[in-house]
Design goal:
- The complex is a heterodimer.
- Chain A is mostly helical.
- Helices cover 41% and strands 5% of the residues of chain A.
- In chain A, α7 crosses α8.
- The longest helix of chain A is centred in the last third of the chain and has 20 residues.
- Chain A is elongated, with a radius of gyration of 46 Å.
- Chain B is of the alpha/beta class.
- Chain B is built from 4 helices and 8 strands, in the order βαββαβαββαββ.
- In chain B, α3 runs antiparallel to α4.
- In chain B, 18% of the residues are buried.
- The chains are: A mainly alpha, B alpha/beta.
- At the A-B interface, α4 of A face β5, β6 and β7 of B.
- Chain B: It is found in: Mitochondrion.
- Chain B: Keywords: Mitochondrion, Ribonucleoprotein, Ribosomal protein, Transit peptide.
- Chain B: It comes from Mauremys mutica (yellowpond turtle).
- Chain B: This is Mitochondrial ribosomal protein S24.
C-alpha cells in the first residue's frame, strides 16, 4: 500500500486526492471524499485509529448510497397486458417477469419445493413462454406476406406425381455451435418411377440391369443417391446427369447385346424354350400314334390347349409356385394330354 | 468392514499387557486386497447442521435427470453430432471467467445454453455491487466472450439479495 508521504514511483509528496485514489484502487472516486479528510500531506501516514474511522464511515456511506432493489415487474403488470411484450424471444426464466407462483425442485423433508426466486432448475429448462398462441399467430401473419398459395391444380398425390415425376430429397442439419457446416448435408437422393419414363421393353430391361440394386421392383421406383461431390448443388447436377445417361444408354443397342443367353434373361419366355419343343413334339407324336389328322406345329401352337399350357407354365416359372398356379397347370396338362379320366 | 491383514510379530493378548510386552508386540498390518473408497464426487459431506447448502450442492451427481437438470445444454452430445469436446472446453473457460469477473457475486452455478450460433449465459448474482457496475461487467463479459468465441454471447442476469439456501447439512 502506498504511503501518503510519497508515491511509489517517485519521491514527490502527493496530494491527498490522488493518494486516496491510489489507495482506494479500482473503487469508485466517490469514496475519495472519505479518504481525503483523513489524510494530511507530509504526515507519516494515517494512524490506525483514523483508518478504522474512515473504514466505518465508508461502510456506512456504502449502506446509505446502496440502492434498494425496486419492485419486481410482476407487480406492475396489467391483467390484460400483451404477453408478447414480456417474452418476445426465447429467454431464460426470470422470476420477476413471470407473475406465476411456480415452485420447482425436490422438496425438503416436511417441506415444499423451493420457490421461483433464484431457482436454478427453472432457469436450466427450456421454456416456451415466447410461443403462446397469440404470439404464434402474430408470427404467422407476418410470414404470410412472404408465402405463395399452393397451386390449386395439384390437389392430389397422383396429380403431383404426374406433373413432377422426379422427387429430390435433401437434408439440412442444424446444431448448436459456431459452425454452420455439416458434411452430411451434401447428400442428394433422386427418386423416379420407371413407368413415367418413355422406355420400351428392351430399354427398361437394360436400365434395370444397369442400375442393379437401386431399382425396387415392388414400387417401380429408381433411387439414385449421390454424395461424391463436396457441394449439394454439384451432387444434384451429378444425379440428374446420371439419370440422363442411363435413359439414353438404355435405348441404345450395343453389338454384344445379341449374345444374351438364357441365364441373363429376367423372366421366362416360352417361345423357343425346351418346354415348347417338348410339348409340341409330344402332341405331334400323339397325333401320329392315333393316326388322326396330320396337324402342323403352327396349328398346334395356335390352338387353345397349347396357349393354355403356355400361360400356366409361364405363370409357374415367373411367379413361383402358388396353389392357384399349380391347379391351373394340372388342368392345362390334363387337357393337353386328353386325360379327363384322371380327376 | 474387516479387510484381510497380515500381522507380524506378537499380537497383544491381555496377559502380555505389561510395559515390556508392549515393546515386543509390534503388530503391523499390510492391506492385501483392493481398496474401495467411498465416492466423493460433487458431494457435500453431512456436518453438524450449520453448513448452508444450495439445491445444486445438496444433490450428488446420481440425481442428475432425476431431481437436477443439466447446467450446459447443447446438441453435441447427441448421436452423430460432433464438437462435444470443444463445447466442453468452452464451458469450463466461461465458468472460470465469470467466476473471476464477478468475484464474490455468484449465488449459484452458471447455466449455459447454446441456441444455434448464440451462447446464452444465465447467471444468478448476489446484490453485492451497485447496478451500474453490474451493467458494465455484463457488457464487458459479452463483448470479450463474443470476440473470443466468434459467436454472439448473451448474458441473462438475475439478482437475489442473498444465496438461496436449500437446507443445512
Amino acid at each position: 500500500m502506498a504511503a501518503a508521504s510519497g508515491c511509489l514511483f517517485c519521491a514527490r509528496p502527493m496530494l491527498p486526492r490522488l493518494c486516496a485514489g491510489l489507495a482506494a484502487g479500482p473503487r469508485s472516486l466517490l469514496r475519495v471524499s472519505a479518504y481525503s479528510t483523513a489524510l494530511v500531506v507530509g504526515s507519516a501516514g494515517p494512524s490506525p485509529g483514523q483508518v478504522a474511522a474512515s473504514r466505518r464511515s465508508r461502510t456506512s456511506q456504502i449502506a446509505r448510497n446502496r440502492r434498494l432493489p425496486g419492485a419486481p415487474r410482476t407487480e406492475k403488470m396489467a391483467v390484460d397486458q400483451y404477453w408478447g411484450n414480456v417474452y418476445p424471444t426465447a429467454a431464460a426464466f426470470n422470476p420477476s417477469s413471470v407473475p406465476l407462483p411456480i415452485r420447482m425442485g425436490y422438496p425438503v423433508k416436511r417441506g415444499v419445493p423451493p420457490p421461483k426466486e433464484g431457482n436454478l432448475e427453472l432457469i436450466k429448462i427450456p421454456n416456451f413462454l415466447h410461443l403462446t398462441p397469440p404470439a404464434i399467430k402474430k408470427h404467422c401473419t407476418a410470414l404470410k406476406d412472404f408465402c405463395t398459395e399452393w397451386p390449386t391444380v395439384l390437389d392430389s398425390d397422383e396429380k403431383c406425381e404426374q406433373h413432377f415425376p422426379i422427387e429430390i430429397e435433401t437434408v439440412d442439419y442444424v446444431s448448436a455451435g459456431p459452425s454452420v457446416r455439416n458434411p452430411k448435408a451434401r447428400v442428394v437422393t433422386l427418386r423416379v418411377k420407371l413407368s413415367k419414363l418413355n422406355l420400351d421393353d428392351h430399354a427398361k430391361k437394360k436400365l434395370i440391369k444397369l442400375v442393379g440394386e437401386r431399382y425396387c421392383k415392388d414400387t417401380d421406383i429408381l433411387t439414385i443417391t449421390t454424395d461424391r461431390c463436396p457441394l449439394r448443388r454439384q451432387n444434384y447436377d451429378y444425379g440428374v446427369y446420371l439419370l440422363t445417361v442411363l435413359y439414353h444408354e438404355s435405348w441404345k443397342t450395343e453389338m454384344w447385346e445379341n449374345e444374351k443367353t438364357e441365364a441373363d434373361m429376367e423372366e421366362y419366355i416360352w417361345d423357343n424354350s425346351p418346354s415348347q419343343k417338348n410339348a409340341l413334339d409330344t402332341l405331334v407324336r400323339i397325333r401320329a400314334a392315333e393316326k388322326t389328322t396330320e396337324v402342323t406345329k403352327e396349328e398346334l401352337l395356335a390352338s387353345e390347349i397349347v396357349e393354355n399350357y403356355k400361360t400356366t407354365v409361364v405363370a409357374l416359372k415367373n411367379e413361383g409356385e402358388t396353389e392357384n398356379n399349380i391347379l391351373q397347370y394340372k388342368e392345362s396338362v390334363t387337357k393337353l394330354l386328353n386325360l379327363q379320366a384322371l380327376q | 468392514m474387516a479387510a484381510p491383514l497380515w500381522r507380524r510379530g506378537l499380537t497383544a493378548a491381555p496377559w502380555t499387557r505389561g510395559s515390556f510386552s508392549w515393546l515386543l508386540s509390534c503388530s503391523r498390518a499390510i492391506q492385501t486386497t483392493a481398496v474401495c473408497h467411498k465416492n466423493r464426487a460433487a458431494r457435500v459431506r453431512v456436518g453438524k447442521g450449520d453448513k448452508p447448502v444450495t439445491y445444486e450442492q445438496a444433490h450428488p451427481p446420481h440425481y442428475i435427470a432425476h431431481r437436477k437438470g443439466w447446467l450446459s445444454l447443447h446438441t453435441s452430445n447427441l448421436d452423430g453430432e460432433g464438437g462435444a469436446a470443444e463445447r466442453t472446453v468452452e464451458d469450463v473457460f466461461i465458468r472460470k471467467f465469470i467466476y473471476g469477473t464477478f468475484h464474490g457475486c455468484l449465488a449459484n452455478e452458471i447455466v449455459l445454453k447454446r441456441r444455434a450460433n448464440v451462447l446464452v449465459v444465465c447467471a444468478v448474482f448476489l446484490q453485492r455491487l451497485p447496478p451500474y457496475k453490474f451493467y458494465f461487467l455484463v457488457g464487458y463479459t459479452e463483448t470479450l466472450l463474443s470476440f473470443l468465441y466468434k459467436c454472439p454471447v448473451r448474458l441473462e442476469v438475475q439478482t437475489v439479495p442473498e444465496k438461496v439456501i436449500y437446507k443445512y447439512l
